[in-house]
Design goal:
8-stranded mixed sheet; 48% helix; 326 residues; single chain
Length: 326
């Protein structure tokens, strides 16, 4: 199947590579000519502009926008909406606010253009591991695009199957779902990222407590000089708190237990805030998630070892770099 990709950064480029490996074709565009050239060398067709990209796609066309949420995505979708025709499809696979998806979907529906929002999780590891996808849009468009989603998804792999799922949508087991109408995909991904904040904060605080187990504030007989790398590693092996985030934590601690490469300045990319806003609108208590978000704000004033570990996890799964130390 053919796909146009706009944005060849940490995830966009690897999405194209995974598709090419499975026999799909791709037309690619990015402001960086070098990024385009790299994928052309791997079998993609390069484009010099959005107009050029659309002209090289076969009807019904599908263009995937993989750009930062906000003005740059808004402008790309608007431009594509003026170039594409009835039955064509625009996918936003970035981290857009779901309300923007609802609005864009309504605007494009009047032109007969499908709009699909794909909450995409997998970070810099997606090329090999696959991407977990939460998809919003009308059934006709999502079903038509299934070959693309099936290739990008992780598949069954070696994850044990959940008992009692017989007769249910098999796509969830393969790592992707049609969550609902336009906006539903990014809504689910928004809450996913809010949960991610809470999980990361729990690990970070726990390891900070372990690190201070030899504090001078404790009686000598209750002080422990713990090897945090070994703790993280043993927890990966059969513990109830094992997870991919813990895997990344173990990798970071194995390299440098003091985490000297990290300042502890922890960014937030927006989804955590939107999740808290949704909780407020619905009057749903979200004490852990809101606390995790505020802790990130606090890290920008006075960082701790826990904040360094948060930064290490963010670099591990998403390639997120801290701002340079002043």
């Amino acid at each position: 199947m053919q796909l146009g990709m706009i944005g060849l950064g940490r995830m966009g480029g690897n999405i194209v590579r995974r598709l090419l490996r499975d026999g799909h074709t791709a037309v690619v565009f990015d402001k960086s000519a070098e990024a385009v050239a790299a994928l052309v060398a791997e079998g993609a067709v390069g484009a010099t502009s959005l107009e050029d990209l659309v002209s090289k796609l076969e009807a019904p066309r599908t263009a995937w926008v993989m750009l930062p949420a906000g003005a740059i995505t808004e402008e790309a979708v608007k431009t594509l909406g003026g170039l594409m025709k009835t039955d064509d499809c625009i996918i936003d696979g970035g981290n857009s606010f779901y309300g923007d998806d609802v609005r864009r979907g309504q605007e494009l529906k009047g032109k007969g253009i499908h709009y699909v929002d794909v909450g995409t999780s997998g970070g810099v590891w997606g090329l090999e591991r696959g991407y977990c996808m939460m998809i919003g849009g009308d059934k006709e468009a999502v079903d038509r695009l299934d070959p693309i989603f099936r290739t990008l998804a992780p598949g069954l792999g070696d994850v044990p199957r959940t008992p009692g799922r017989e007769g249910r949508d098999p796509r969830a087991e393969h790592g992707y779902i049609h969550a609902g109408p336009t906006g539903a995909g990014h809504y689910v991904k928004m809450v996913h990222n809010g949960i991610e904040y809470g999980l990361m904060q729990a690990y970070a605080e726990g390891f900070d407590i372990l690190r201070h187990a030899d504090s001078e504030n404790l009686p000598p007989e209750r002080r422990f000089d713990l090897n945090l790398g070994d703790v993280a590693e043993v927890w990966r092996r059969g513990s109830v708190v094992s997870s991919w985030l813990l895997d990344l934590t173990a990798q970071a601690l194995a390299g440098d237990e003091d985490l000297d490469d990290f300042s502890g300045f922890v960014e937030d990319s927006g989804e955590g805030r939107w999740t808290i806003n949704a909780a407020v609108e619905q009057a749903v208590p979200a004490t852990v998630l809101s606390s995790a978000l505020y802790r990130r704000f606090r890290s920008r004033e006075q960082a701790s070892y826990a904040d360094k570990l948060l930064s290490a996890m963010r670099r591990g799964f998403g390639g997120h770099q801290e701002p340079k130390k002043s």
